[in-house]
Design brief:
Among the domains are: 72 residues, Tetratricopeptide repeat domain (Serine Threonine Protein Phosphatase 5, Tetratricopeptide repeat, Alpha Horseshoe), CATH 1.25.40.10; 55 residues; 92 residues, Serine Threonine Protein Phosphatase 5, Tetratricopeptide repeat (Alpha Horseshoe). The chain is 79% helix and 0% strand.
């Protein structure tokens, strides 16, 4: 029996569509398999190209969207990672499957509240996922200034697995920032006992010692970190910075050369370069390095800076300050203080900017908390005295200057400020003396 012509044509079209559909799926699968192989071999750029090819063939291929999100995360393109992972969610993937990479993408963009609201710890199914997510949530809570909740998240992670190194180190870092050095070091040593070759544990040990000016311990721990992982950027920057502070520039050169070669646009490395050039008398080179820092940090949203480079806001302030761009410097220092209210250095610099503008009220407001945290810092006391002097509160200013003089060991600069304060109060002879 012969089919009518139109039925025969329709049957042929359906057969052709089925064949081409299978061919498209096969091509998409082939691209995906190649992308996965490349991703596992750390050829991330090649993996991204192949995943885009796969999605061109099959836009609804969930696995390709997920792997693309993970690949973008690896390259640091967190907005693109978030977009790819959200598409996978829209196509029906289980939320637990993308919860951790999505949380990481949100965190890297500084979307801390979004992370906490959209990716609760209960989203995931496995212990491994829950550990990662709890630590990420703790980081987000810490970035928002909720230290208590951050500590609780790290504790929850440790209750799931007491040997989970990222949770132990995160809690240790929190303790160190609260001034509890002994407790912090106890946890770091616990992490090292569990994983003696963990570079991040040794780097935190170095950072804590560095923060407490324990030079020998800091250098030893930085050396150990880099012997385990020569590419550990944080340790390179930390060791270089410490050596530069000690004026051991020749010893810092090896780390600075490494950073210039491997991380040429890293703002912390660029700032250290400016410091070295200043110490060596190359003012023009130092200004160019500072300008390069500002070009890097000014192009990054403040929230992303806080997530990726916690010191980024401070570096932006310091670099603009060094270039005499006080308006921008003040913006960065104010943002950094909002995130790190107990940092006296940034308060001193912002206070000095306000003083230079004659803004004595804001200078007092920003410097008084610094005096509470550093009651014997002669710079804080002298700046605060100048602010009160500008407000006509000469008695308070004189008292602060006397404290500054005692704390500084009778430094000439503080003596001069005290003299001017006394003369302003009408005590000419005493002030001149």
């Amino acid at each position: 029996m012969r089919l009518p012509l139109f039925k025969l044509a329709a049957a042929l079209l359906l057969t052709f569509a089925a064949i081409t559909g299978h061919a498209t799926e096969d091509k998409a699968a082939g691209y995906y398999e190649d992308a996965l192989t490349r991703f596992e071999k750390n050829d991330t750029a090649g993996a991204i190209v192949q995943l885009k090819n796969a999605l061109q063939q099959d836009p609804k291929m969930i696995a390709a969207h997920i792997l693309l999100g993970r690949a973008y995360l690896r390259t640091g393109d967190s907005p693109a990672a978030e977009d790819a992972l959200r598409k996978a969610l829209d196509l029906g993937v289980s939320r637990s499957e993308v919860a951790v990479p999505l949380a990481q993408a949100l965190y890297d963009q500084g979307k801390f509240r979004d992370l906490l609201e959209r990716v609760p710890a209960e989203t995931v199914n496995t212990s491994a996922q829950r550990l990662e997510l709890l630590v990420l949530r703790g980081h987000a809570q810490k970035a928002l200034g909720d230290v208590k909740s951050a500590a609780e998240s790290y504790e929850r992670a440790r209750s799931v697995d007491p040997r989970y190194i990222p949770a132990i180190l995160s809690q240790a870092d929190l303790l160190a920032q609260a001034g509890k050095r002994a407790d912090a070091e106890r946890l770091v040593d616990q992490a090292i006992a569990i994983a003696p070759a963990d570079a991040s544990a040794w780097n935190l040990k170095a950072s804590i010692a560095h923060g407490y000016s324990d030079v020998a311990a800091a250098l030893a721990a930085y050396d150990k970190t880099l012997s385990i992982d020569p590419g550990f950027l944080e340790a390179r920057i930390g060791r270089a910075g410490l050596l530069i502070d000690l004026d051991r520039l020749a010893q810092a050169d090896a780390d600075m050369q490494y950073l210039g070669r491997e991380a040429p646009t890293e703002p912390r490395a660029l700032y250290l370069k400016a410091v070295v050039l200043t110490k060596r008398g190359d003012g023009a080179g130092a200004r160019e390095a500072l300008a390069e820092v500002t070009r890097v940090v000014d192009g990054v949203p403040p929230e992303m800076l806080r997530a990726r480079i916690p010191q980024g806001l401070l570096l932006g302030g310091l670099s603009h300050y060094g270039l005499n761009q006080m308006e921008r410097a003040a913006e960065y220092f104010a943002a950094y203080i909002a995130a790190n209210p107990r940092h006296p250095g940034s308060r001193k610099l912002l206070g000095s900017i306000y003083l230079s503008r004659g803004n004595h009220r804001d200078a007092v407001a920003v410097l008084e908390p610094a005096r509470k945290d550093a009651p014997h810092d002669p710079d804080v006391l002298a700046l605060l005295a100048a602010a009160y002097m500008g407000r006509g509160q000469y008695q308070t200013a004189s008292q602060l200057l006397e404290q500054a003089l005692e704390s500084s060991g009778n430094a000439p600069g503080v003596q001069a400020k005290l003299g001017f304060s006394l003369m302003t109060m009408g005590q000419q002879k005493l002030g001149m003396d």
